[in-house]
Predict the 3D structure of the following.
Amino acid sequence: MSTLRCRNRLQGLIHVVLLAASPILHAASFPVEAMFEAEAAAPAGPWAQEYLGSNVVSGGGYLSTPADLARADTPGAAVELSYTVAVPRDGTYTIWLRVLAPAANAASLYLALDNAAYASVSVPFSAGQAAAWTWVPVTRWLAAGARELKLRYRDGGVGIDCLLVTALADF
């Protein structure tokens, strides 16, 4: 009986020590240079702020365009969202976009950095499945300093929740 009590106390002490040490063991910094809520940009029509609650989207809201909006075949025909990120050092960065594509024909948007040309970003969509939030990575080389990240809709019905700019290729 005494040995059992001693073993239980020792196991309890080990658990306390491990819990106390765990912040030290897991204190490695996550190299996120910037994270933005999409709705932090002042939306202009046709972008509209939607609310789903924080258990579905970060911050509880996201931006979307109407489902019946005609496709913008060129970026100049679409309204821009703009975000400024302070890049700490030159290098390759991944811009993660948390996007909702409601249908296969509504699964893309445009992305540009600073004054570079816009590029189309495709959102994975599986026909026959319900729309789901997806992280879409876009890798670019960025120079240190303030950089402007710009988004424009390409397809109606696309939603954007948040953007993350990081030196990590995967997270």
Summary: The CA atoms of residues 34 and 60 lie 19 Å apart. Confidence is low (pLDDT under 50) at residues 1-30. The beta strands are 32-37, 48-51, 61-64, 80-87, 91-100, 108-113, 119-122, 133-142, 145-153, 159-166.
